[in-house]
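Researcher: Next entry in the queue.
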Amino acid sequence: MPGRLEGKVAVITGAGRNIGKAAAALFVAEGAKVAAVDLDETRGSAIVAELNAAHAGAATLIMADVSDEADVRRTVDEAVAAFGRIDILINNVAISDNKTIRDCTLEEFERTVAVTMTSQFLTCKWVAEQMIAQGDGGVMINVGSTSGFSGRNRAIAYTAAKGGVANLMRSIAVQLAPYGIRVNSIVPNKIGSPVGKDEFDATRPVGNLAGRAGTPAEVAGTMLFLATDDSSFIIGENIFVDGGHTAMTH
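Model: Structure for this entry, 250 residues:
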């Protein structure tokens, strides 16, 4: 029986760890080809090797800084050269400052916003051109955060960037809908290891209705739903995958 993404090509940023890694594995298992984008060659090479060991020829690694426009344009070119087209974009990469306004430097603020939010503008912009040229639409899934919907006592640039991601996605959705491109965001809370870290701390406190931390696989499953026609009438939405955290705090 063919997978739910048979014949589709997905570009996944930050594919070497956590949510991006889980999404890449699930999408390949469902029949997609995956261009795994990462700046860490060791992590990126490892996930691509795993994917190709399970499904020969299913994945390729693209080393890129997606906050850099030239790298983003090269990423699109390399994905198309490898697999012929792009059907799905997952904007997963992010970094966090974990600082207060008194401690965060302008350089740290601008770098966090560039990687976390500006990268989504750039990848959506240039992947959209490819999808429009193909003429049959596509799907974009941006990763936000519950940190974009409330203040925090130990992050300033990250919360600003993720707040921007929520409405950036809405405008992109409005502007690309005429081309048959559906755009949505997923809003997780404390899923797997913290942003920028490889280690998962099972003792990290979580405040949600599930009473536990979420897993990358649970977010990847929601991404799969948004990537298929099962979600064909969902456009421009921030989908909260947070174990009920937001229901408790808002």
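Model: The chain has one domain: 9-249.
Researcher: Noted, moving on.
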